[in-house]
Amino acid sequence: MVDMKKLAGEKAAEYVKDGMILGLGTGSTAYHMVNAVGELVRKGYHLQAIPTSNATEKQARELGIPLLTIDEVDHIDLDIDGVDEIDPEFNAIKGGGGALYREKVVATLAKEVIWIMDESKLVDHIGAFHLPIEVAKYGSKQAFEKMDAYGWKPVMRERDGKLFVTDNGNYIIDLHLGAGFDIQDVKEKVSGIVGVLEHGLFLNFCKRIIVGKSNGEVMIKENPNPAK
Ligand code: 5RP
Predict the structure, then answer these.
(1) Strand duo 48-51 + 21-24: pairing
(2) Cβ proximity of 88 and 124 under 8 Å
(3) How many whole angstroms separate alpha carbon 170 and alpha carbon 19?
(4) Which strands form 171-175's sheet, in the order they lie side by side?
């Protein structure tokens, strides 16, 4: 069977140039890209990288990829990361793995962003996938109630029967908005709720998407007008 995520992850590594500072994404697609970056380091490329989660940091360390902290950089040359859903206007939902805050900090710093995925992530309208919101523990009940009052069908994320805690020590509230929700309206309202650290909307961030397909092909689509 074709491993679509591996196809996309390995293709993305072809955009890595010697000397770059990289943003390393999180998730099962990014996993393959990080392995491919490790292979480049093994071949002698001089790379440095910022991981977007503790899991990616561990993987990168094991592969011998030189790492930097976010405080040590003023720019990132290229960020490569996965997505949960993306529409034809390059509006994406991320954070299925709960790493959205660090992913957004890194993507915002990056000169160029590439999203990698299997073809199931391509949708006409985002929102069938839940929209993750990272919130501070203190006041999370009130933030949840506000989201509920907006009709966003919030659910506190759990793992192994306990509330899920992010690498930053916060909770995740997943919103069930449905495909075709009003993106700008939700973005504005959610950003105004006290206790919200960040949301999983990544609107027009990327320069290109790389999609692994079930027929073994890789589709690359350039964004003619990225916001960055
Ligand atoms: C983690 C993310 C991931 O990039 C997103 O969930 C996609 O994951 P996968 O490649 O495993 O499908 O945003 O917070």
Answers:
(1) parallel
(2) yes
(3) 34
(4) 154-156, 171-175, 131-135, 196-199
Give the tens place of pLDDT for each residue, 163-205. Answer: 999 999 999 999 999 999 999 999 999 999 999 999 999 999 9
Residue 22 CA to residue 203 CA, distance in Å, equals 21
Angle at 52 between CA 171 and CA 38, to 5 degrees: 145
Which of 3, 24, 28 is the best mutation target for the ligand 1 pocket, counting ligand atoms within 8 Å of the beta carbon and taking the most? 28
**45: Cβ contacts below 8 Å, ≥ 6 apart:** 16, 18, 19
Pocket test for ligand 1, best of 32, 80, 81, 84 (most atoms within 8 A of CB): 84
pTM of the model: 0.97
- Give mean pLDDT, residues 57-77: 97
